[in-house]
Amino acid sequence: MHKLATCIVAMVTSAGMAQNRPPMPSSTHGSGPVWEKGMVEGRTYKNASVGLELTPAPALEFGAPELKGKPGTVPLLVTITAAGEAKLASAREVMSFSSDAMAYYPENRRSTADYMRRVALGNGEEGFTTLGGTSESKLGEVTFARQDFQKGVVYESVLVKACKTEALVFIFGGPDLDAVNKLVAGTRLKLDPATSGCGPTSVSPSAR
Questions:
Q1: CB 17 within 8 A of CB 96
Q2: Predicted structure pTM score
Q3: What is the mean pLDDT of the segment spanning 19-40?
């Protein structure tokens, strides 16, 4: 089991989102994409190196983007989190986006289904309960696999799409599923198919 998958798993608390990110390995292996961390302009996060523009739901504000790892090697992760107003005794509304370099994973374990299984396993280890089966959800014109989770008063929806060179992972958290659904509906996403590898020819193989 590759540990990097667990760094995508998030736990939302009343204080915000605490992402379980193990330390990056002291040495990297294999070649990966040359990514930059991108920047926030107004309310939109732009990262031309991963081929993405992202605007969160109106209630959320972005923090600073981060680049985990050394560009050109794997593991490599670009991530950014947007959070809403902190509320006493209530789960804070949050969205986390990560782009995970697929070259880190075995070639036959790079499908959306494989990635979602790793996410579900990591969430289970953190005490989250899976709600129902995997469904589909759209951000902009892009269709993602979706899995919902619950831990106490925290509800979480994870959206995953495995592309040619990267896995796009969105984590939405809030006090209930209605709040989470509103965050998903309010998110605006634009992808450059050529750069992101998420075009019609980039369908990942099915899990075996």
A1: yes
A2: 0.84
A3: 66
Its domain, for residue 81, covers 3-12+32-162+174-192
Domain count of the fold of the chain: 1
Q: At 133, is the secondary structure helix, strand, or coil? A: strand
CA–CA distance, 154 with 176 (Å, rounded to integer): 7
Q: Percentage of the chain surpassing pLDDT 90?
A: 75
Condensed to tens digits (0 to 9), the pLDDT of residues 104-116 reads: 999 999 999 999 9
Mean pLDDT in residue range 170-197: 95
* Closest of 96, 110, 119, 97 to residue 6, by C-alpha: 119
Query: What is the chain's length?
Result: 208
Tell me the residue type at 193.
P
* 203 within domain boundaries: no
What's phi and psi for 11, nearest 5 deg? -125, 120
Contact criterion met (CB below 8 Å) for 112 and 105: no
Cα dist. 193→79, 104, 166, 170, 178 in Å? 19, 21, 12, 18, 31
In a domain, residue 79? The reply is yes
pLDDT tops 50 at residue 5: no
Q: Is residue 200 part of a domain?
A: no
Contacts of 137 (CB under 8 A, 6+ apart): 143, 144, 146, 157, 159, 184
Q: Is residue 128 part of a domain?
A: yes
Alpha-carbon gap, residue 128 to 178, rounded angstroms: 18
Burial class from Cβ neighbours inside 10 Å (0-12, 13-18, 19+) for residue 191 reads buried
